[in-house]
């Protein structure tokens, strides 16, 4: 299904970007939570990884990730 997946720390969050074919998706969660606390970043799918990362960081900055 997903061809590429990357997770990285952003402030107090963990962001995961993943590619499914030509589309990019993102998920975010508070870093201290266990797996399963991921929330999908609204607005996807994106055309590129940088677009997905930017959207995920804005999602976290607006405190929607948890």
Structure summary:
It contains one helix and four strands, in the order E-E-E-E-H. The chain is of the alpha+beta class.
Describe it:
The chain has 66 residues and is α+β, with helices and mostly antiparallel strands. It has 1 helix and 4 strands. It has one helix at 49-61; strands spanning 4-10, 13-20, 23-30, 39-40. A 4-stranded antiparallel β-sheet has the order 1-2-3-4, covered by helices on one side. A hairpin with a 2-residue loop joins strand 2 and strand 3.
Order of helices and strands: EEEEH
Mean pLDDT: 88
Estimated helix fraction: 10-25%
Low-pLDDT stretches: none
The class by helix and strand makeup works out as alpha+beta
Number of helices: 1
Query: How much strand?
Result: 35-45%
What is the global morphology? globular
Largest sheet: 4 strands, antiparallel
Q: Major sheet: order of its strands? A: 1-2-3-4
Which value, in Å, is the CA radius of gyration? 11 Å
Total strands: 4
End-to-end distance, in Å? 27 Å
Task: Write the SSE topology.
Blueprint: E1 4-10, E2 13-20, E3 23-30, E4 39-40, H1 49-61
Key traits:
1 helix, 4 strands, 66 residues
């Amino acid at each position: 299904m997903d061809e590429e997946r990357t997770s990285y720390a952003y402030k107090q969050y963990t962001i995961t970007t993943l590619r499914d074919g030509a589309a990019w998706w993102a998920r975010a969660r508070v870093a201290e939570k266990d797996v399963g606390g991921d929330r999908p970043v609204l607005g996807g799918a994106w055309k590129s990884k940088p677009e997905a990362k930017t959207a995920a960081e804005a999602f976290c900055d607006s405190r929607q990730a948890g």
